[in-house]
Amino acid sequence: MYYRNDTRVVKIKDIYMGGNNPVLIQSMTNTKTKDIDATINQIKELEKLGCNIIRVAVLDKIDAYSISKIKQGINIPLVADIHFDPELALIAINEGVDKIRLNPGNIQNKDKIQEIVTECKKRHIPIRIGVNSGSLPKGSELNKENMIKAAKSHIDILEALDFHDIVLSIKASNIDLTYESYLEAAKVFPYPLHIGITEAGTDFKGLITSSIGISRILDKNIGNTIRVSLSASPLLEVKAAKEILRELHLKENVPTLTSCPTCGRTQIDLIPIAKEIEDYLYTVNKKIHVAVMGCAVNGPGEAKEADIGIAGGVHEALIFKKGEIVRKIKEEDIIKELKKEIDLF
Fold it and tell me: Which pLDDT tens digit goes with each residue over 78-110?
C-alpha cells in the first residue's frame, strides 16, 4: 500500500506534491479560458482563499495560446485540461503551463505522445492521468477493477517512455465506488493521488457528497491533493476543501469559526454577521478561533475556548476573549470591530 507519505514526489512549478508534503487544494476556473482578464481575476480570488493549484479548460488553440498571458497575472501553478488533441498539449507546454491533465491512451498518434512526453521531461512538467466513470472504454462495466485497468493502460504508456512525473485521479460520482477505487489505486500505483468525487452536484448536495467521500479517503492516509467538484462557484470549492483539511488536521494555520444556530433568544441579525465573518476568515492565514454567538447563554460560556468572539444582546454585543468579556459594542459595529480584533490577533 502506498500511503500518502509513501508516494513519489512530483514538482509542479515551485510546489511539491506527494511524499511528506502537505495535501494541496485545487480548483478549476469556470470562466472561458480565452477571456484572459476574467480568468486571471477569478484565479486571483482563488489564490486569496488558499487555492494551491488551478486548472483551466483548453478547448481550442485560442485557449492554449492564452496560457502564457494568464500565467503572467497569477502566482499559483497553472494546469491545462486537455482531451484528445495532442496539438493543444504541445501548444500549452510551449506557452509555459506547469502541469498537463491528459490521458495518453486517448491519443491515437503514438509519435505525438512521444513528443508530448519528451517536451514534458525537458521542462519538468508533470502529467495527471484522470480516469472517471465517463472515460472507461466503451462497453466496460463501471466497477473498481475496470477503473484500475483504465488507469494502468494510461500509466503503462508513460512508463514505457520512462516518464514518471505522474499524478493520478480515479473518480466516480458514486462515493462507494470512488472510495474502493482509490483504496485499490493506492495498492497498485506509487504516484500522488488527486482525490475528489466527480460531478458531485450543486452547492448543497455536492458539498455533502464531496465532504463524505473525500474525507473517507483522506482518513485512510491516502491522497495528496483534493478538488471539491461542484456545480457552483470555484470559490466555494476552495472554501470547502479548506474545511475538510482543517477538520482532518491536514492543514495548519486555518481559522476556525464557531457560530450558534440562532433561536428566539437572539436579538441581533446574527446569520449575515456569521456569513461575512466566515468569508473574511477564509482570507486569513493564521490559526485563530472566532465565535459568533447569539446571546449570553451561548456566548462566553459555551464558546469560552474561542480566541475572540461576540455574544449578542438587544441590538448590541459583547466582545470576549478566551471567555472574558472585553467591551460592549453596537450591533452595527459588530463586523467592523470583530474584523479589527481578528487582524490584531
Answer: 999 998 899 999 999 999 999 999 998 888 899
User: What is the Cα–Cα distance from 133 to 151, expressed in whole angstroms?
Assistant: 12
Which of helix, strand or coil describes residue 302?
coil
* Residue whose C-alpha is closest to residue 32's, from 42, 17, 44: 42
Distance in angstroms (rounded) separating the CA atoms of residues 64 and 259:
44
What is the helix (H) or strand (E) element at residue 128, kind and residue range? strand 127-132
CA-CA distance, 289 to 256, in Å (whole number)? 5
Crossing angle for the helix pair 36-49 and 234-247, to the nearest 10 degrees: 20
Sheet holding 127-132, edge to edge: 166-171, 127-132, 99-101, 78-81, 53-57, 24-28, 225-227, 194-195
Query: In the chain, what are the helix, strand and coil shares in percent, each to the nearest 5?
Result: 40, 20, 40
Query: What is the distance between the alpha carbons of residues 147 and 137, in angstroms, rounded to a whole number?
Result: 10
Q: State the DSSP string of 256-288.
A: EEEE----TT--S-HHHHHHHHHHHHTT--S--
SS3 state at 58: coil
Query: Is 268 within 8 Å of 294 (Cβ atoms)?
Result: yes
Beta bridge partners, 225, equal 24, 194
pLDDT in tens, 163-207: 999 999 999 999 999 999 999 999 999 999 999 998 888 989 999
Give the pTM.
Answer: 0.94
Q: Which of 338, 260, 256 lies closest to 302 in space, CA to CA?
A: 260
Distance between CA atoms of residues 96 and 66, nearest Å: 10
Contacts of 205 (CB under 8 A, 6+ apart): none
What is the DSSP-derived secondary structure letter of residue 4? Answer: G
Instruction: Classify residue 298 by burial, with Cβ atoms within 10 Å: 0-12, 13-18, 19+.
Output: buried
Pairing of strands 15-17, 10-12: antiparallel
How far, in Å, CA of 193 to CA of 245, rounded? 15
The dihedrals phi and psi of 308, each to the nearest 5 degrees, come to -140, 140
- Give how far the C-alpha of residue 159 lies from the chain's centroid of Cα atoms, to the nearest Å: 27
In the numeric block, which cell numbers belong to residue 260? 450558534
